Amino acid sequence: MRAMPEAKHPDGDDGTGVQIDMISAERMDGKTTMEKIRTILDGVREGNIVILESGLTPDEESRLIEVTMTEISPDEFNGIEIETYPQSKADDSSLLGRLMGREETKKLTVIGPANQIETLHKDETLISALVSRK
Amino acid sequence: MGLLTNLKDSISRAASTLFSEEDPKRIGIYGPPNAGKTTLANRIARDWTGDAVGPESHVPHETRRARRKENVEIERDGKTVTIDIVDTPGVTTKVDYTEFLEHDMEKDDAVRRSREATEGVAEAMHWLREDVDGVIYVLDAAEDPFTQVNTMLIGIIESQDLPVLILANKIDLEEASVQRIRNAFPQHETTPLSALEGDNMDEVYDQIAEYFG
Questions:
Q1: Which residues of A49-63 are buried (b: 16+ CB within 10 A; e: fewer)?
Q2: How many other C-beta atoms lie within 10 A of the C-beta of residue B98?
Q3: CATH of the domain at B35
Q4: Residue A58 and residue B158: Cβ atoms within 8 Å?
Q5: CB-based contacts of B204: which residues, under 8 Å, 6+ apart?
Q6: In degrees to the nearest 10, what's the CA dihedral of A8, A9, A10, A16?
Q7: In chain B, which among 157-176 make CB contacts under 8 A with chain A?
Q8: Whole-complex ipTM
């Protein structure tokens, strides 16, 4: 597994910016559920905003919530804010669809530290969020 | 598609016969914090067993352990539907102990409550993946339903093909909007109620019998 390369400001982290990691579907493709969760939480716990091109499956989202809960610590880490579009009611998300190997379309997902990202508006087609520095 | 639909129906029927009469389905009551899950669980339990499930509170994360009330027998149209009700902690992706300080709590108590709350959320997610046969999803009709937690949880429930009944709670509040919830989850039927006042519980019990009987 390749480690996330360092992507710091040339002058070092002077606390004036917010790092955004845009992770391609290709980069996440070969990872196990726990590897994906670690990639996300390691980035978020450093104060980064993580954007996933292909999102997570419902089961991965369920485990992300569970692992996040185990890592919350007073005055250190309050958890995550995660935003993705609502699942469309695609036929392919049915049991039969999955049995036939048709996964529902995964959607762009934004994840950040709960104390740095705030959702301003959300509907089926638009997510508007405010990102602040630590 | 007709053949595929028939095949899917056959699988559903085969799955439903796996539940015997003596084996009550475990129905998880899920939703965000403060939606009225425990108020509903207590209403159902008191109506049909005479006992309550757990304490209710306006302070978020009052329920920090999943609680099961077994063998709740609901009578509808001369038939009896027996279910186990599992009242679960409200699901969230974040817990900040400082929010509890606003409810006149000392820091130590707030930190302890937040730690128990995080354990409770993890427990609720585990139950959802492993141990429930159906879900009653409770939403506060006075709040915006378009939240990530609601989107994710409904997605998780759908991905497991669990039957889900969406309840729009707190219709006794002036700002409640049942239509807003219907718009958010058009793929599911939404039933309005006030668990606190007992409004529209007959329809809720009809729906429970239909969905989980």
A1: bbbbebbbbbebbbb
A2: 13
A3: 3.40.50.300
A4: yes
A5: B167, B191, B193
A6: -140
A7: 158-161
A8: 0.84
Which range marks the domain in which residue B100 is found?
26-212
What pTM, to 2 d.p., does this model score? 0.84
Q: Nearest-CA distance from A9 to chain B in Å? A: 29
CA-nearest residue of chain A to B99?
A: A78
For the four alpha carbons of B123, B117, B56 and B29, in that order, the dihedral sign comes to negative
Q: Is the residue at B183 inside a domain?
A: yes
Q: Do B122 and A114 touch (CB under 8 A)?
A: no
- How is residue B91 annotated by DSSP? P
pLDDT tens digits, chain A, 134 residues: what are they? 455 565 555 554 566 788 999 999 999 999 999 999 999 999 999 999 999 999 999 999 999 999 999 999 998 999 999 998 765 544 444 555 555 444 455 688 999 999 988 888 877 788 888 988 76
Most A-contacting residue of B93, B99, B162 (CB-CB within 10 A), to test interface: B93
pLDDT at position B4: 60
